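tool=predict chain=A
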Amino acid sequence: MSSFLNFNMNKEMKSYLLGFLFSSLLTTLPFLLAIEKFFCSEVNYIIFLLCAISQIIIHFVYFLHLSFDPEERWNLITLLFVIIIIFIVVFGSIWIMFNLNHNTM
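tool=predict ok
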């Protein structure tokens, strides 16, 4: 019984638990703000955006274990490449759809 009370979590488990707590908080905060309407809608949008960006960063740090260590530089370069490709695909598709709509109207 005493080993249960004095258990020692490793560093990875602490990271996952802390990330889960932060992401849970950053998920419930926008829901509460949307339901209770504490602020005007413009302030809520800004808070939602900040919560979303911080949750992305928390997922990268605590769950994907991305850091700025020299050993993990390739992971960051790969992530940057993926973000650029997604940006090109999404905004290229929007641009094509806008031009198609403009040319057909």
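Residues 31 and 101 are 35 Å apart (CA to CA). Residues 1-65 form one domain.
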